[in-house]
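Review this today:
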Amino acid sequence: MEATGQDIDMAVLGPMSVRVREFSWTPTAPKMRNVLAMLIAHADQVVPASSLATELWGDEPPASASTTVQTYLLNLRKHFATATGRTVAEISNELLVTRTGGYLLNGRLASLDLRRYELLAQRGRTALAEGDDVAAVRHLSEALRVWRGRALLDLPVGRLLEARRCQLEESRLVTLEYLVDVELRLGMHREVLTELAAVIVENPLHEGLHAQYMRALHLSGRRAQALEVFHRVRGNLVTELGLEPAAPVQRLHQAILNADSDIDVWSERRPLVGPPPSPVGRP
């Protein structure tokens, strides 16, 4: 029985994973994995062959780079033909397609965790823009649950995949900020504490997340800890960058010092548009 698009699942929001009919078909050869990761991370976009060469070998690819990239694509097509019960020609025409100057992964023929995340995050942003906080919490929470760890967690990525990984990680943090904002508006102060406690350790210079953590602690009756968080992020900023916290964080700190009940100086951010697509044509 041949696999359909619904039978193929590809994931990059965490360790890279490829499953066909619930069985793992993740390639093991390192450079094949990076080529496939580039195609998944830029699904439905033409990835130039030159970008694949840059990802694999940096700024000094070997003379055989073009031929070697073609070989990796052929091996990937054979891999998916075996996994799905289709012919190599069918995979070439439908799933891993050659385009002028490069290659394209047809995202309509596979279930992609990246697509699920983007769709749910966009629904959440739309709900926020429309003032529907309850729906926003539902969609944004579902979007973040798609993640299984840091993007492309198990790949020694090159320059282009590293740029894409940073973009995806930044998108995750923005989605989390939107979610925490709306949860705090809905009075879910204690619910956000555990996740924020972990994420500020991973992002010691991120003022927005620290401000949210300060708000959540203060609103949960933990004023002293909220002030400790301010001094911690201030110390990090001064030590690492020679900067003082931004004015909204300073105002939040002062409001907590004054036991002010109106501390929403870093909230009410309602997105109006979605993020731009990731370009891959300029290595």
The longest strand covers residues 8-11. The longest helix spans residues 159-185. The radius of gyration is 22 Å.
